[in-house]
Design goal:
By secondary structure, the protein is of the alpha+beta class. It has 5 domains: 3-159, PAS domain (Beta-Lactamase, 2-Layer Sandwich), CATH 3.30.450.20; 165-289, PAS domain (Beta-Lactamase); 294-427, PAS domain (Beta-Lactamase), CATH 3.30.450; 452-528, Helix Hairpins (Orthogonal Bundle), CATH 1.10.287; 529-695, Heat Shock Protein 90, CATH 3.30.565. Helices cover 41% and strands 25% of the residues. The chain contains 21 helices and 24 strands. The strands form 6 sheets. It has a 5-stranded antiparallel beta sheet with strand order 2-1-7-6-3, with helices on both faces. It has a 5-stranded antiparallel beta sheet with strand order 9-8-12-11-10, sandwiched between helices. A hairpin with a 5-residue loop joins strand 13 and strand 14 (334-337). Helix 17 (499-526) runs parallel beside helix 21, helix 18 (538-548) crosses helix 20 and helix 20 packs antiparallel against helix 21. It is elongated. The two termini are 67 Å apart.
Length: 695
């Protein structure tokens, strides 16, 4: 049958792009599932959903696990591999290289009907002419046929190989950067001007008198600056965060460790980054301890007339310094260089004196250097500049030049006229290259993370749309099953005999599936971050939940004691789901013959008192600890983390009903509110759920 005829005969195969065309033209009569007119409605519906979806899907059907897949899954098969022979092929024949990995997962779904979930799972596949290591995030879900049995396994997946590769490369780059920073003995900082959050590495914290694990309050970062430098540094930061400045930050100042009193002279270099509206969102950079270098300069400045008269001693001292040292007359005429100058430039003393220094400057830096030097000569202000100078081998290197004037004593202790200028040149080429590389690598890593986040966001949106559409499409046949089952039971119960039991089982299975679909839809909706928070009374939420559960409370004889509860900033509907799931579980998982007793209390704790294993998203200093305690059957604490995962059940369905999604919703609501949750229990001794929400 050609594609056009197949579309007319089987409208459920419409659309689907390339895979829709291949599916319609495939001769299914040669497989064990037969031609499409023999397919059960469950298979037709699932294949129709699969072809229409833009999220990668794969279906195994029947005892031989005959395969279907859609256009979104097609790229994962690569070229020169399994496509298109995988369509209609038996799974074991198609996946010999991965069969030991995926077969147990398929068997688990076929045997118990419970879905699986795997995140960033390594499953090598043969594609593009070779066996490749491929990472996947996927779920194997049961597809039940008309008899209520598992007729197939639906695979909803996405390939995460690129994201894993990017993340690992980013981690390697970060490790290399961290090593380089440690080797250079630099402090690093990162300021968010929107939130005023200031972050630094361990070396910076040590300079600030803080332990490695401590946060760095922005005020602390300013308080360690000595008084005479603080305003100048604040002005330099403000100037860097103006878009017109280009975002460059460069300042030399002194900091004091408040614990030890040790002073350090540091040079801060950084760069600000701006949003499209020209507002700054980040300022980061490095601090270098230049105390030793500046001390030497200060010693040179403090040298008095005796040093001028004892030029031989001065030359002897400076020749042992690692920096190039130079001196000028008051008008700026150079008349002294130490040995390092001649070794670096290759110039002779005659070539160096006077304006000889300008002959080895990079042509692009001459005008700027002369202008700044002239300004210092005219005003007596300290001279500081970075420029490129030609080394004796012809290579240009970046240098940091600094100079201070030595003045005669004036009347009344005031500074007198300038006697000489003393300066140094320090090779900073490697440090400057490192800073540039650091900025580039940070920018590349940030871009890679942004791309990965966008891919993850699109993946989550596709999953949410799929869950919503699937739940509505699947509810309709379920409602028909339930309605026709009720009609059969009402009108033909006497004629069905033992068949009534089978009918009731069918109805029970349909009810469970309906409940599962509703819970899945609820969970997919709760995945979204909430909208604008508003004031929500937890007491009001609890009262509403108790009204909804009034019948269950009466039937179980449950008593609920709720103490004073706070009003918080949050999402009311989500918080209602949180407490309704916890209270429902406390009633459901009660001990035989014992009426449930549920206690709800609240206290305020500081962030420092939170259990070490909890890591809430919020950085609030205080949290409300809301505790929900029951006297039910409890559970082994080794399952304390597992119970918050999707479809995780510690008891059989015959003992206790439910879908295994309720506590996953609880966890998601707590995460959306920036909090954390902890479960504490022992078998037979009830359970206690500790909910931490930002105060």
């Amino acid at each position: 049958m050609n594609t056009s005829d197949a579309l007319d005969s089987y409208p459920f195969l419409a659309g689907g792009g390339e895979m829709g065309t291949l599916t319609r033209s495939f001769d299914w009569s040669k497989t064990e599932i037969g031609s499409p007119d023999e397919w059960p409605q469950s298979l037709r519906t699932t294949v129709s959903i699969l072809l229409a979806s833009r999220f990668p899907m794969f279906l195994f059907w029947g005892p031989s696990l005959i395969q279907f897949y859609n256009d979104a899954y097609r790229p994962s098969l690569g070229n020169d591999g399994k496509h298109p022979t995988a369509l209609g092929q038996r799974a074991e024949e198609c996946w010999p290289e991965t069969w030991p990995i995926i077969k147990p997962l398929i068997d688990q779904v076929l045997a118990g009907g419970e879905a699986t979930w795997s995140e960033d799972q390594l499953i090598p596949i043969f594609r593009n002419g070779r066996l490749e290591n491929v990472y996947w995030t996927f779920s194997y879900s049961p597809v039940r046929d008309e008899s209520g049995q598992v007729g197939g396994v639906l695979v909803v997946c996405t390939e995460t190989t690129q994201a894993i590769t990017v993340l690992r490369k980013a981690e390697e780059s970060e490790e290399q950067l961290r090593f380089a920073i440690d080797a250079a003995e630099l402090g690093t900082f990162d300021l968010n001007p929107i939130t005023n959050r200031f972050v630094g590495n361990d070396r910076l914290k040590e300079w600030f008198g803080l332990p490695p694990h401590a946060e760095i309050p922005l005020q602390t970062a300013l308080d360690v600056i000595i008084d005479r430098d603080r305003q100048r540094v604040t002005d330099a930061i403000w100037e860097a965060m103006q878009y017109a400045s280009g975002g460059l930050y460069d300042a030399v100042y002194t900091i004091t460790n408040p614990q030890t009193g040790i002073e350090r002279i540091v040079r801060a270099k950084g760069k600000a980054y701006f949003n499209p509206d020209q507002t700054p969102y980040r300022l980061n950079g490095t601090l270098q301890d230049i105390t030793h270098e500046v001390t030497i300069q200060q010693q040179l400045i403090a040298t008095n007339e005796e040093l001028v008269d004892s030029i031989r001693q001065f030359t002897f001292v400076t020749d042992f310094m690692p920096q190039m040292v130079w001196a000028t007359q008051p008008d700026g005429t150079h008349d002294f260089y130490n040995r390092q100058w001649y070794a670096f430039t290759g110039l002779t003393p005659d070539q160096s004196m006077g304006e000889g220094w300008s002959t080895v400057l990079h042509p692009d830096d001459i005008a700027r250097t002369q202008a700044i030097w002239q300004h210092s000569l005219e005003t007596g202000a300290p001279y500081e500049i970075e420029y490129r100078m030609r080394r004796h081998d012809g290579a240009y290197r970046w240098l940091l030049a600094r100079a201070l004037p030595m003045r005669d004593a004036g009347p009344d202790g005031q500074p007198g006229p300038i006697l000489r200028w003393f300066g140094t040149c320090t090779d900073i080429h490697d440090q400057k290259s490192f800073a540039t590389d650091l900025e580039q690598q940070v920018a590349q890593r940030t871009r890679a993370l942004q791309i990965a986040n966008l891919d993850l966001q699109r993946s989550n949106e596709n999953l949410e749309r799929f869950a919503y559409v699937s739940s509505h499409d699947l509810q309709e046949p379920l409602r028909k099953i339930q309605s026709f089952g009720d009609l059969l039971k009402t009108n033909y119960a006497s004629q069905l005999g033992d068949g009534v039991d089978f009918l009731e089982r069918m109805q029970s299975a349909a009810d469970r599936m309906s409940m599962l679909i509703k819970d899945l839809l609820a969970f997919s909706r709760i995945r979204n971050q909430p909208g604008a928070f508003r004031s929500v009374s937890i007491s009001h939420i609890i009262n509403g939940v108790l009204n909804d559960l009034e019948l269950s409370i009466q039937e179980s004889g449950a008593t609920i004691d709720a103490g004073p509860l706070p009003t918080i900033e949050g999402d009311g509907p989500q918080l209602r789901q949180l407490f309704q799931n916890l209270i429902t579980n406390a009633i459901k998982f009660r001990q035989p013959g014992v009426a449930p007793h549920i206690r709800i209390s609240c206290e305020t704790v500081s962030s420092a008192d939170l259990p070490e294993e909890l890591h809430p998203i919020s950085t609030a200093s205080r949290f409300y600890l809301i505790t929900v305690t029951d006297n039910g059957i409890g559970f082994d604490e080794k399952y304390a983390d597992r119970i918050f995962q999707m479809f995780q059940r510690l008891h059989g369905r015959s003992q206790y009903g439910g879908t295994g999604i309720g506590l996953a919703i609880v966890q998601k609501v707590v995460d959306n509110h920036g909090g954390a949750i902890q479960a504490v229990s022992q078998p037979g001794q009830g359970a206690r759920f500790c909910i931490y929400l930002p105060a």
